[in-house]
Amino acid sequence: MIDPNVSIRLARPTRDLAAVERFYVQGLGLEVLYRAAGGPGEHDLLMLGWRGASWHLELVGGLSLSVQPTPTSEDLLVLYLSEPIDDALVARLEQAGGKRVSQGAYWDRWGISVEDPDGYRLVLSSRSWSNAA
Description:
Blueprint: E1 8-13, H1 17-28, E2 31-36, E3 44-49, E4 55-61, E5 76-80, H2 87-95, E6 99-101, H3 105-110, E7 111-115, E8 121-125
Parallel strand pairs: 1-4, 5-8
Antiparallel strand pairs: 2-3, 3-4, 6-7, 7-8
Helix pairs in contact: 1-2
């Protein structure tokens, strides 16, 4: 059986590592956990998250990237903040290259959605979430 406290890596390609780094670090407040420049035939790598969290976001890019980002409106990274969304946070995300978008009635009621520079959607939810029964 898999330990329910296992760490999670969410990985995806990006067209512009610098732009998504600015969005997630300056805008959202994630930290750079790891960075590597790819050699010939390899992609560049950027891992972002919060120290001590059980997940991180891995972004791959560079000239050797073989797959381009293909986000849909349903590719969501949802953060359950359990409190009202701070307008200053949304402003930082927009200043860092994000674009506020509608994600439909449910998410528009319970949060704010912002597209990152690649078009993937970050949802800041005022709700809480627990997997506990």
